[in-house]
Automatic annotation (TrEMBL):
SMART domains referenced in this protein's UniProt entry, alphabetically: HTH_ARAC
This protein's UniProt keywords: DNA-binding, Transcription, Transcription regulation
Name this protein carries in UniProt: Helix-turn-helix domain-containing protein
Domain of life: Bacteria
Statement: the UniProt record of this protein carries the keyword Cell cycle: no
Chain ranges of the HTH araC/xylS-type domain: 156-239
Amino acid sequence: MAGFRVPGPLVGDLRVVPHPAVMLILEFGSEAPTVGDGAGRCLRGSLVAGPGFGSGGGVRAWGKGVECVQVRLSPVVAGAVLGVCPAELAHGAATLDDLWGGEASWIRERLGGADSWQDRFDFVDALLARRHATRPPVDPEVAWAWRRIVVGGGLVRVDRLAAEVGWSRKRLWSRFRSGVGMPPKRAAKLVRFDRAVHRLVAGEDAARVAADGGYCDQSHLHRDVLAFTGATPGAVVGEPFLTVDDRAWPT
């Protein structure tokens, strides 16, 4: 969870870089920000985006007077918290008004009237915990497979995951996609990209990042970064969406 305040206009359009989490944006500023989803739709206000949202580099955000709380939810708990299966977002996004109706306006008012960021964080934390407690979780096998992918940095074979949970590859594919919002192979690729691109932002050598990240070579890493972000590795290291991570999302 992180809080953001941009008093003036965003400098240019902010490229949204894919992340292996469901993104929840709760805005309460003087003007509602706008997100162009890359498919011609413009979403205003608070929104929910599926894991991998921004793939291809076509998703942009803009606005001024932006204030928001951003939450990154693990896909295996997001369905219970949000009341919508991550698969229904399918790398896309929806406004919170569409998902939660009038509750979205109430949340905006509470966040805007809070005295401090800590009060906002406490409010959001309690809100999400309450929603999570009232809905069933994903299959434990799916949650376990997701954790294996994340811990392994995306370097895990799908057939091995299926064998470890005692499912067929086809069943794992179907249940994982339903619970997480993407097939396991795509999830592994996204996790691997996320690890690699943050190492690039930290200034590590691209050849070393490629070798450690399981890429065939540096050209393979280049193609993966370009496919996910629409930018080359040399350009993506300056993306604000990534460079703020070590402050807004400390490891």
